[in-house]
Design goal:
single chain; alpha/beta; 6-stranded parallel beta sheet; 14 helices; binds 3-phosphoglyceric acid; binds magnesium ion
Length: 403
């Protein structure tokens, strides 16, 4: 996909002295502090991932405006808990400079000089943001000379600051984070080194059916896990006892398997599993061959033989896409499968891309961040990419680059 890159504009001096508007995704989790009840950031990955665009703009001598949404506030209704104030404070620490927070900024009238950076208050407080109203888009476009889309986590939304402004700003380009996500995604899905293996796991087939269908005509192996694997086992005629599954989706599961098989690809079905009689961290874990799963068993992980077989496949892969832990890895007794998958991804020479909240938690738990090729900052956006959709951000930036 062809799009302008902010790094190129900076390198060629086109950002110097210009008003640069960066849409970042600084939507971080907040929690009321125990001592004073003030909101505190509990996890700042997205803020840190957004720094390169800001530093790039500052180094280029631009007048820098940054905005983001935080949560899903009501437009036009200001409440203190919707404020980006904690984000401004954290940014200021990380950038080592003051970061003024500007409220009511849509009509301009605030000061920002070349070499300065200001944070514009929660963009979802502006009327028309969600629906991308043309009036708002026109105002946003007037605020800047260059619009930088760097919010991959929000790239699946067509809102005022993620889409409208990309149409109205004099120049619209991708920031380094968005560009890196685009590059990693095309490396993994558009031009993958084969074999391409995808791991799609989670509790429900229904929430990931489009992903399974879309991947079924791209990948060489589709490893399923969690409740999704239970539904596939049931579809393959295996007993799953009391396990979480969706019997009304058996036909869809069979269709995915048939589509894969017709191309000489496969959905590897577990041959052994770890079961318990109840869903609890201290429940007794038993390894069983799948044929031996009893009526009152709950399948909570893949078994060691299955894990070893999948690990060997992952070691021989050219590309790996990972979304979802294969077992209840929060419970130690049922974490073996997810750990084996994580370690296999870490030691595989394949290019790997991983995304999704639970997946990131598993990656952190096993400390394999450095060995994963690319860790996506997108939740919903990453899933929509796997569904085979063109995200609005990518579409509009490509269109602007072609114009
Ligand atoms: C997220 O946290 O998933 C992104 O920031 C997008 O937020 P949204 O789902 O509220 O659009
Ligand atoms: Mg979300």
């Amino acid at each position: 996909m062809n799009f302008l890159r902010f790094s190129d504009l900076c390198a060629s001096g086109q950002a110097t002295g210009k008003r640069v508007f960066i849409r970042a995704d600084l939507n971080v989790p907040l929690e009321a502090g125990a001592l004073d009840g003030a909101l505190q950031i509990t996890e700042d990955t997205r803020i840190r991932a957004s720094l390169p665009a800001m530093r790039m703009a500052l180094d280029a001598g631009a007048a820098v405006m940054v905005t983001s949404h935080l949560g899903r506030p009501s437009e036009g209704l200001w409440r203190p808990e919707d404020s980006l104030a904690p984000v401004a404070a954290r940014l200021s620490e990380l950038l080592g400079r003051p970061v003024p927070l500007i409220a009511d900024w849509v009509d301009g009238g605030f000061e920002v000089q070349p070499g300065q950076l200001v944070l514009l208050e929660n963009c979802r407080l502006n009327q028309g943001e969600k629906k991308n109203s043309p009036e708002l888009a026109a105002k946003l476009g007037r605020l800047c000379d260059i619009f930088v889309h760097d919010a991959f986590g929000t790239a699946h939304r067509a809102e005022g600051t993620t889409y409208g402004i990309a149409e109205t700003a004099p120049l619209a380009c991708a920031g380094p984070l968005l560009a890196a996500e685009m590059d990693a995604i095309s490396k993994a899905l558009a031009n993958p080194q084969r074999p391409l293996l995808a791991i799609v796991a989670g509790s429900k087939v229904s929430t990931k059916l489009t992903i399974l269908q879309s991947l079924s005509d791209k990948v060489d192996g589709l490893i399923v896990g969690g409740g999704i694997a239970n539904t596939f086992m049931l579809a393959a005629g295996l007993p799953i006892g009391n396990s979480l599954a969706e019997p009304d989706l058996l036909d869809q599961a069979r269709a995915v398997m048939a589509a894969m098989k017709a191309r000489g690809a496969e959905v590897p079905i577990p041959t052994d599993v770890v079961v318990a009689k109840r869903f609890a961290a201290d429940a007794e874990a038993t390894v069983k061959a799948v044929a031996d799963v009893a009526a009152d068993d709950l399948i909570l992980d893949i078994g060691p033989a299955t894990a070893a077989r999948l690990a060997a496949q992952l070691e021989g892969a050219g590309t790996i896409v990972w979304n979802g832990p294969v077992g209840v890895f929060e419970f130690e007794a049922f974490a073996g499968g997810t750990e084996a998958i994580a370690r296999a991804i870490a030691s595989s020479p394949a290019f790997s891309i991983a995304g999704g909240g639970d997946t990131l938690a598993a990656i952190a738990k096993y400390g394999i961040e450095p060995q994963v090729g690319y860790i996506s900052t997108g939740g919903g956006a990453f899933l929509e990419v796997l569904e085979g959709r063109t995200l609005p951000a990518f579409e509009v930036l490509a269109r602007r680059a072609a114009a």
